[in-house]
Design brief:
- The complex is a heterodimer.
- Chain A is α/β, with parallel strands linked by helices.
- Chain A has one domain (about 5-270): Alpha-Beta Barrel (TIM Barrel).
- Chain A has helices spanning about 5-15, 30-45, 65-75, 80-90, 105-110, 110-120, 140-145, 165-170, 190-200, 220-225, 235-245, 255-270, and strands at about 20-25, 50, 100, 125-130, 150, 155, 175-180, 210, 230-235.
- A nine-stranded parallel β-sheet of chain A has the order 5-4-3-2-1-9-8-7-6.
- In chain A, helix 2 (about 30-45) crosses helix 4 (about 80-90) and helix 11 (about 235-245) packs antiparallel against helix 12.
- The longest helix of chain A is centred in the C-terminal third of the chain and has 18 residues, at about 255-270.
- Chain B folds into two domains: about 20-55 and about 95-210, Rossmann fold, CATH 3.40.50.1100; about 65-95 and about 215-400, Rossmann fold.
- Chain B has 17 helices and 14 strands.
- Chain B is globular, with a radius of gyration of 19 Å.
- Chain B starts with 17 loop residues before the first strand and ends with a helix.
- The chains are: A alpha/beta, B alpha/beta.
Amino acid sequence: MTTRIDKRFADVKKESRAALVTFTMAGDPDYATSVALIKALPKAGADVIELGMPFTDPMADGPSIQAAGLRALTGGQDMKKTLAMVREFRKDNNETPLVLMGYYNPIYIYGVDRFLADAKAAGVDGLIIVDLPPEEDEELCLPALKAGLNFIRLATPTTDDKRLPAVLANTSGFVYYVSITGITGSAVPDSVKVGNAVGRIKRHTKLPVAVGFGVKSAATAKTIAEGADGVVVGSALIDVLRSTLKDGKATPQTVNAVAAVVSDIAGGVRAARKVAAE
Amino acid sequence: MTVQRPNSFRTGPDERGHFGIYGGRFVAETLMPLVLDLEKAYNEAKADAAFQREMESYQAHYIGRPSSLYFAERLTAHFGGAKIYLKREDLNHTGAHKVNNVLGQIMLAMRMGKKRIIAETGAGMHGVATATLCAKFGLQCIVYMGAVDIERQRPNVLRMRMLGAEVRPVTSGANTLKDAVNEALRDWVTNVADTFYCIGTVVGPHPYPAMVRDFQSVIGRETRAQMQDAEGRLPDSLVACIGGGSNAMGLFHPFLDDPSVAIYGVEAAGHGLDKKHAASVTGGRAGVLHGNRTYLLMNDDGQIEEAHSISAGLDYPGIGPEHAWLHDIGRVKFLSATDDEAVAALQLCSRLEGIIPALESAHALARLPEVAGGKPKDHLVVVNLSGRGDKDLDSVAKYLEGGR
């Protein structure tokens, strides 16, 4: 089965470049702005959309994404609205892959079967659930694969060669390599280490490897794009979004400002000369 | 929910850390290899007689164990029913049961070669215990504490600093214990190579709930032996307060397979179960947070709600997964006590026994009217007096002056 994610990574590879994966939080700072933003992202150069499902206790996220989640929740965002956003997005975009990212509890409470059915129907392509390691695959990963959704796993610097096969076993779509040990939005990645790590993961899988955590600028994006199949940018976009808010509310600049940063980073990604092992 | 009653209540968790449907290992991939390393190291230490002997030696000479099992004559007379015994964990070095667990974890950290210790704390007792043992063994100690808790537990903040620990205020979320756990987890994710996360209660990813329980079970083992000495038989009822539930688990676990022993856990009902409270079993439902599935306070969208209790140590929207399971299978009965009831029980115990209990422990004392009152005179009740109340005097004074 070829999914939107598979097709997008294959297309990008034909262009000899890496994909740009953008993360924004659903409902940040409000539903309408957030919908307008994800609709603007593909035009600005995003190849894959990651949409955060807000959670009160995001234990692997730094201050930027924590605050984004709280803004969304304060604005009344919930799982039903997040799925509604995906349906809105799909009304005029049937090509760009969309991945939901977040924590397990809101899905568990929504009901796993109901969530998978509703997500699939809305046009979701994959899931990244931070607190579901392979040890808990029966919870959501296996049912998601059965429902025809990709389950994208995080691999980290602490995932050694012995553990990688277990992490990759039920992973599909792409592998999300977390380039540093730490929370989102913290230290800047070391490009040599990242390149080596991507090579290490590629010895174990044919899946594309996207690299995230700590990507702040077109320059870091370019460095990573040289060694990876995808570059994930999140906290940097959310920081720009926040800087446009007035009293916590969206302004006319909000969507354009984030889109402008995405264009800039997309330029960095596209300028990279692909040197990764094919 | 139909739950099969096991032959023994003491064999859990299974190899994946499950107590029935509860427990598990719901952590980010970065932490998973560390959690597996910890499990391996703990299993080795558990089987190592030298490790156990060394721990017992520190328990005796540093903590001051065994803690006494004290017959509370005037409380007994006051309620006019069962004989009330207090298990005096308040007499431990650092003033609470927390040190039992910290000793075990710090010895394990040293065995694993970890030199940087992080901890979360609510009331500050776990933070003080961790700072104490880090001082004793020369380890770096960083304690995450909610800004609200720093305010209401100032004496413990000063103690931790005196002991050389760095207290880092947490200003995310509601600035209390739940958020301190989140920050400690974020620290651990960032500093994986050299850091040991010393969790203060029976929550978190496997093996924490089982490991902390094992280190705290010294409370129940001593109680069995001491009650044999005092009365020649087992107690009839056990009562303990439950936030995360480590003092309760430590008292209960050695008695779980004795059907004659009734077991009561007392959650914090805060302003009342229909208002803001911290009673996860009584007022919550099953969900996933902080590495385990357990009962949690949350809204219909799965967003975690803020707990409330006058007692900072019980102010947590979850509970240990083993308690969740013991509730479902009916082995432990869950009760609750409000802020008002806890403060009244603290005053009563202070004036009748000359023992100022921690606000946490006062929640257990608050259910004595039901658990001890009206019972036959030969009924034996043990209350886990999990900590001393000096730290709470400011909060209690403010509460009594200002109402709630």
